[in-house]
Write a structure and sequence with these properties.
By secondary structure, the protein is mostly helical. The protein has a domain of 129 residues: Up-down Bundle (de novo design (two linked rop proteins)). The chain is built from eight helices and no strands. The radius of gyration is 25 Å and the shape is elongated.
Length: 199
């Protein structure tokens, strides 16, 4: 009788420990992270697919600055050349490289849009205006997808670092996942210089 009660007590304790270990939570959050990451990649691909059409439309403007177009084309080539695998999510160096390439493409496209303001014929071109609207919509979708990814990674990382689930993370080799960072963090952390004496 005592051995049976002891067996039931041990089973109850093990059951309690297993429910609190977080293993199933790791599985759920890992899948959510992968799903959110896929949406980020989907939106980045959508932006990359718009670039050739934007470049072709802008090339029609004979006087348009070739240097700006070249930078956009090179940035797109660099961003699409990086092979993204599921392991990218667990490799901070690969993740940072991917993020930097996407940041360069975003910056190049922003410069292109600013420069295009100087060309009234281009601004009047309906195809260019349509592409610009699509690009702006895609940039908004990228922001939403990145925010969802950031939130899922945050939940995963909190689980990875919290007790007692951190023990499960150590046993099953679940490590903290890298997250998006601000590329120009040093610049934006510095307060802006305001000089009212400049003319």
């Amino acid at each position: 009788m005592k051995s049976r009660l002891l067996g039931l007590a041990i089973a109850a304790v093990l059951s309690f420990l297993l429910t609190g270990c977080g293993y199933n939570d790791f599985q759920r959050l890992d899948e959510q992270t992968k799903s959110a990451w896929s949406e980020v990649l989907n939106q980045y691909q959508r932006r990359a697919d718009l670039v050739p059409n934007i470049v072709a439309t802008v090339k029609g403007e004979a006087a348009f600055e070739q240097d700006t177009l070249t930078k956009v084309i090179e940035a797109r080539a660099k961003a699409t050349s990086i092979q993204v695998t599921p392991e990218t999510l667990n490799d901070p160096a690969a993740f940072s490289k991917f993020q930097a390439a996407q940041g360069e493409l975003g910056s190049a496209l922003s410069r292109l849009m600013v420069v295009s303001e100087r060309y009234p014929e281009l601004k009047a071109n309906q195809a260019f205006r349509d592409l610009r609207v699509q690009l702006e919509g895609t940039e908004n979708r990228i922001t939403v997808a990145r925010n969802r990814y950031i939130q899922t990674v945050q939940a995963y990382n909190v689980l990875t670092r919290s007790f007692p689930s951190n023990l499960t993370a150590m046993i099953f080799s679940y490590s903290v996942k890298p997250n998006f960072a601000v590329q120009n963090e040093a610049q934006i952390s510095a307060p802006p210089v305001v000089d009212f004496n400049k003319k």
